[in-house]
Fold these 3 entries.
Entry 1:
Amino acid sequence: MASTPTKFISIFFLLLTTFATQVLSVAPEECSAETGDCVNKSKALTLKIIAIVSILVTSMIGVCLPLVTRSIPALSPERSLFVIVKCFAAGIILATGFMHVLPDSFDMLSSQCLPEQPWHKFPFSGFLAMLSAIVTLMVDSMATSLYSRKHNGGILPETEVVGGGHQELGVVGGGGHFHGHHHSGGIKEGTQGAQLLRYRVVAMVLELGIIVHSVVIGLSMGASNNTCTIKPLVAALCFHQMFEGMGLGGCILQADYKLFKKAAMAFFFAVTTPFGIALGIALSKTYKENSPTALITVGLLNASSAGLLIYMALVDLLSADFMGPKLQGSIKLQIKSYVAVLLGAGGMSLMAKWA
């Protein structure tokens, strides 16, 4: 059922990659090799193996935690604590886009190893992130409509006009909420199915965006032999993957998939960064992170991933929760959730000092 958003965004990223790998330029000799006292191939390989194991374990813990704690009453999706933890994880995802992925893209596409024309004449990173956010909105909207039609006999679910007031259905990731004018009364029964479909679209699109940037950062680490860079990156990525996994795990839980699909989504999230590291190790002789082709390809993918993650964090996670009935009904819970968002975003932003 979740193949539609995956197909659209996969095609989008595939086109970007194809375009990027066709762009060739001549780089200075120093742009294609790592030098310095920190470069130690054998020691770096040991650190990379440690990174694969530790990131795999922390990723699995993070994404599975919301799934296995469903039986604990305090951590069920209906409880306030679940919303607070989800807001914390959404702050992590938001900071990942703004503080890690997007700045990396700007650095890569403005590198001195790239020719002046066109890479230094136009802000490709910001432009592509903007396009990515718009495309994600399109996919998000169209996939929800298509799934709704598919599961409602070709008819989109509609809300009832209750008490003389018009209600427009706006059910999204963090709990149903209304857009437009809403008065007394409620949304009738068909909303539950539409809400579940919405949760599933959010979970799949978010997972795709996370997987793209996880492979990219894993590839960069695996190809590097700079121990001074790898050491802090291991700790930062463990922190990042655990809490990002918690955010994704919360979305998977709300999507109410069957056990096999939950396990598959958790597995793919957990193995993508280790897979990227292993791929980087395998390609370390031919892949040079400062070569023009690598800079352009990874820079474009990072910009695209950043736009997707920022959109998902703001629209499908934070906006959905804060404009939903649960948080709108409690100022105290809103304040706690705002603090959670700031803590998550602040913690992940701090990691930018090392990674």
Entry 2:
Amino acid sequence: MESSKNSLIPSFLYSSSSSPRSVLLDQVLNSNSNAAFQSPNLEKNSPSPTMASRKNFLIASPTEPGKGIEMYSRDFYAACTVGGILSCGLTHMAVTPLDLVKCNMQIDPAKYKSISSGFGILLKEQGVRGFFRGWVPTLLGYSAQGACKFGFYEFFKKYYSDLAGPEFAAKYKTLIYLAGSASAEVIADVALCPFEAVKVRVQTQPGFARGMSDGFPKFVKSEGYGGLYKGLAPLWGRQIPYTMMKFASFETIVEMIYKYAIPNPKHECSKGLQLGVSFAGGYVAGVFCAIVSHPADNLVSFLNNAKGATVGDAVKKIGMVGLFTRGLPLRIVMIGTLTGAQWGLYDAFKVFVGLPTTGGVTPAPAAKA
């Protein structure tokens, strides 16, 4: 059973205790040991400071006793990247029917007047299969976005924390969450944008294409490769505030849950309870995300559907009130569920490979000399 379970995870996600990197880590730890700890009063069989320090570097894997993933190593970021692919790609694909109705409500509100009527019209005109039109560009696009979003968020969060130093990182942790998530999303949207353009065109123009395989060349033939990135600026306008709210509010909400709603410290809670907290925190964060990013979402849908349209055309056609309200209730339900499921899947994968769940512990400031 153990060997079959290990085969599901790429071997590079684990660092062997006998690997060159682990040997180098041992040498570094041994060289940094303070001579003061080598007192003759210490018993030979007592744990050494080196071994105590090593526990802070390696996290035990549930499938490989004695081995683990080194925090903030290449394997750590690789694991976070794989978790991001699974969490974003699978969840966005699962809610394709909701996304399809939302996009059509945004493009043609006279025809798609409500959620129920929207589903009814699509079922009548396109059948059950029509609800999953555009699922391939959705899966590919949001898998690429999730890989960059979660992988680079973990990288930038660590990078900005190191720049600030332990004391300021603890004091201004929310700013670090915001900066790290914004930086990651800038990169993630470059990966998502071409797939999003094809997805919207396939979903809102019946007969344009069946999916990604024929929709991509048709789109390029019609608008050129530059047309694939026509919606990048509105996509940044939608996704960057969304992601900043998604990560910063999630980290804050989870920390508050562990502080005020759960009597035991996080490390004493079961993994099941921790994953439940991740889902709950993600769902609440998703509601805030939907409200903040909804106007830009309307712009993205309009621009990718109308050839040669501008932001001014979209505002004139939809109206300022419509930008904030059209399709919002459905998007709150969709994004709340989506975000909760994403954090649940992401942290479940981290637990599976032996990493701790995200958030819930306030960074401690550095001790003053």
Entry 3:
Amino acid sequence: MAASSLDIDAPRWDQSTFMGRLKHFFNVTDPRTALLPDARLDEAKALVQSCRAGSLPPGTTEEQLFYAKKLYDSAFHPDTGDRMNLIGRMSFQVPGGMAITGFMLQFYRTVPAVVFWQWVNQSFNALVNYTNRNAASPITPKQIGVAYVTATSTALATAVGLNLYTKKAPPLVARWVPFAAVAAANCVNIPMMRQQEILNGIAVTDENGNKLGASKKAAVKGITQVVISRITMAAPGMIIMPIIMQRMEKFKFMQKITFLHGPIQVMMVGVFLIFMVPAACSIFPQQCSMAVSKLEPELRESIVSKYGESIKYVYFNKGL
């Protein structure tokens, strides 16, 4: 296919299959793209927009277009087209997540350390959740503040409570406290940060992108899938790493380099996240669907009155 005839917005891989979505997210969550300057990202956006307008610069190759679309998808919001803040991008999940998770797993013994690293993690998560929300549903600064405080409080209460509760438990159980806190906080942080979608509904369309209305049930479905994905993303590193570290710390050479235990955990968590970030994002399609029969009665009746039985499913961006 010639570059001039390429549909830049058509999925490069089949998004109806897990493997197709996995290839897509390996592409757009590539942490190397987080190192690129804004000017390079803006160039990629300009090339994508030129392709959409059918006016490509002479000599543009298909590979250049694919790479420009990769950069565009990694750095610009799918709803608004605005450049996302660096820390909130999925391409920053590996470097950001590995550092925070590694230190959460390392410094789990004292309450002050638990409080500090859970606060850092929830601040990071709040920014990621806000950045990757469905941007068609605006949220006020006050709602952002309430969401942040609520999620952080949940994480701290869970972590500190379990930390104190597990003082007499086996060492491995205590090492799993950070994951329990992260999982609990995700169940609060994401819905709170995206509360406008739950309160007012999320825009749903037909298969051609024509808006049909707003659905609260669609919002709940999308946000639930995001919560599951985020917990899955963190689980392998935060559950398996403590087992690995507990066994490694029995070796004499590890006992001599205790100052390197933190950096070692950071690097090993990074290995998990390189695979788990795209895998977790791929569990559910980003362009989510829902049967018309499962929508709110008033929206269902509105769609049926206008289109009859021709529309069976509605579609919406669930966010990441």
